Amino acid sequence: MSDNLENLRVARRLASADASKSDLAAHFELDPTKSRPFSPRFRLKEEASARLNAEDEMIVGSLSLGDLFTQQRQRAYREKIAGGWTGLRLVSEGDSWFQYPIVLEDIIDDLFDDYAICDMSAAGDTLFNIRRGTTQIIDVLRAERSHGLMLSGGGNDFLERDVFARVLRGYDASFTSASQYVIAHRLDEVMRGIAADYAAIFRAITQGISGIKIFCHGYDWAIPRFGGQYLWPVMEEKEIPETLRADITRILGDAFNDVLKSLASETEFAKRISYIDCRGAVGGAGQWYDEIHPFNQGFSRVADRFRQVLNRDLVA
Hints:
The chain is α/β, with parallel strands linked by helices and 316 residues long. It is built from 14 helices and seven strands. The protein folds into two domains: 3-61, no CATH class; 65-313, SGNH hydrolase (Rossmann fold, 3-Layer(aba) Sandwich). Helix content is 49%, strand content 9%. The strands form two sheets. The protein has a five-stranded parallel sheet with strand order 4-3-5-6-7, sandwiched between helices. α6 links the parallel β3 and β4 (116-119). α1 runs parallel beside α4, α8 (134-143) runs parallel beside α11 and α11 (184-208) packs parallel to α13 (242-264). The longest helix has 25 residues, at 184-208. The radius of gyration is 21 Å and the shape is globular.
């Protein structure tokens, strides 16, 4: 087979749902220049690009790896159901903690063998997008006769650079604590918006499907680190003392978790919302792939917390 034909074959295989994870990992890498919090972006590796002509590269370069991974998960789900699966059936919708292609084994990857999961996640998803798609979520839950919905969202809503910067004060020699660098009324405003979006999502789904259970989670405490691309640069611009930076993100993480914990306890939702507290699951700085995503082992420990709650609250 000529090199041109082989390259075309590779390009077309990569552009199909038949592409293996090893195939994709061999040709793509994380693109730090385009990635955002909870929204990893990928680019063709230089050595892979050099092997492809312009037409082949256009085929491969147009890929949405997130879409491909969703297709692959959907196919695996269909095969599991067709094989006579009798265990719990779930739908998942969320951000990069539910879908981080190629580089990491995320929460859904870790849970996939234990449950039949119809995944609708997309790295970079915001609560606004999830809220806008509740009708589709309801349709899928009904069609699949699912026992529950897993949600992961909100990180993009409060750790996006502009939002993150807006809730922080710049250096002040008189400040001695992390809380002094957090603009409380602005953080409250952000959290009220997140609470409103989550409440609307919960309301639409619980009213749309009788008896459905929803499982939401808070993130573990993010850890700013030198060279990080999400949190550290903002704190550098603000000239916030390094010794206070982790405590600041801890304050923000606690505020987010408090929102979900409070919503899950509201009588309106009649115990149909289960909040999963993931704080402390990942571990110290060495357990994190970047400032906001764990390594595989950390994701696995987070997934274990999901298992505990899923198995407690659902019956197949």
